[in-house]
Request: fold
Amino acid sequence: MINLFSKSFSTPSPALPKVALLALAVAITGCNSNSTEAKQNQPTTSKTASSSESDAAVVKAIEDNLKASGIEQKILSAVPTSMENIYWVNAEGAPAFYSDKEGRHIILGQILEVGQSQPIEISTELRAKIAKEKLAAVPKDELIIYPAKGVTKAVIYSFTDADCPYCTKMHSEMKQLNAEGIEVRYLAWPRSQDSLPKMESIWCSDDPKSAMDKAKKGQPLSSPKCDSPVQSHIELGVSLGVSGTPAVFTESGVQIGGYLPAKEMAAAAIANK
Reply:
């Protein structure tokens, strides 16, 4: 069996599931531990996906072809896109990718449709739908939540790391975000082996919110070991294509980027809720 597991990923390698396809994706996209911001320029959402129904024949073809190449990978769905014979594929424990109808060619990254006023990423709606479902399924007691002040206008999920400069900057503007009507829900995304114990200490603390505040200020933490959700958050982030921190999603599953100034973050969250 071919072992494609790579240590190039920015999260701690022993904590991640050793999925060959995931490693292949990571190796090709080349994300690294120096990435401190997940800010992205999101293309316009595509509204031209031809169907939301998974094609079982394509799922089987992809699994069979991967297995023939020495890669064991469960494929959850293969949905047709607006590009003829190209499918958007959701895999268990791995980032989504594209495949042709025969399941013989895997495409990692974006496919843009051009010809309109701006480029359109053909899987944006499909990605958001999956992200919305997965984020909603995270138990609230696994999240560190900073509620909005007054009326809640929007909710954001942020994959965060205690040692990430842009995460720290975002956290320093928490009061302003909350005052803008934004509820912030943190998930753990340690970017390195050094960050992993600190993130586990935060989630194992008797008062995780206070521990998070201390960690963001660089203060030492001391918490007992526990059965923390950090690993499951890492796996969730991997499946959603997170590659840096902060990675911010709205309740609707739209990734609105990484760090943005509080007013811009609030406006983006409300516009995409």
